[in-house]
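To the structural biology subgroup,

Please find below the input and predicted structure for HipA-like kinase domain-containing protein, which we are adding to the shared reference set this quarter. The sequence is reproduced verbatim from the submission form. If anyone notices a discrepancy with their own records, reply to this email rather than editing the shared folder directly, so we keep one authoritative version.
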Amino acid sequence: MLKEVIATRFITPLREGGSLPGLVEADDLAAYVLKFTGAGQGRKTLVAEVVCGELARRLGLRVPRLVTVELDSVLGLGEPDQQVQDLLRSSGGTNLGMDFLSGAIGFDPLAFPVDPAEAGRIVWFDALVNNVDRSWRNPNLLMHRGDLWLIDHGATMIWHHNWPSAEASAARPYDASDHALARFRPDIAAAAAELAPQITAGLLDEVTAEIPDAWLTGEPGFDTPDALRRAYAAPLLTRAAVIHERIKGTE
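Predicted structure (tokenized):
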């Protein structure tokens, strides 16, 4: 299970992206980028972050370590920005944290070359989870100590916003023509040969088990958190076997 920490100090808001994450210090004295349950995108964004982040890690891709962060809403009482104060007040309970990569800089495709093998693994993974938010305009990639790291997976698995149409939505092709790494001739075939066999029912059970029950309860059409976990796993298992044939725009 994800490590559990308690937020002890709100350091500063990070005014990047639509979710307004914040930087917090926790009771283990580490700093984490905090994504809030009270943000506009809601808990489904946090579920997507856990599923994609933990799956990427198991596939050997670099993602910041994820933790759950217990937040006491009183931490927001001294925050001068009313928007941030409201967000903290509305996010009491279990939130999502990720290791703060001190010194990391944003990826620039004009400054940092990426070999076709690594580009292929990342594009294949983004196609698997249908990541629509890794474009050259907004790569959601960081360079940290010479390595490429993946961040921000909230805009993935769009099918979980409409479960009745999930099967049809998950079957759609992936357009990579706007992908931040499309220019590096990603080797999709090699990535599929390496990664697709690793996507098993057992692996997806392990990944979805990391989602806190608190983010899964009350979903219409699902009686239990485990039933919803299986719904998250099913499209990924089906998609892994065929998505390499449906990636467009890397030719």
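Summary notes: The chain has two domains: 3-99, 105-248. DSSP finds seven helices and ten strands in the chain.

Regards,
Lab coordination
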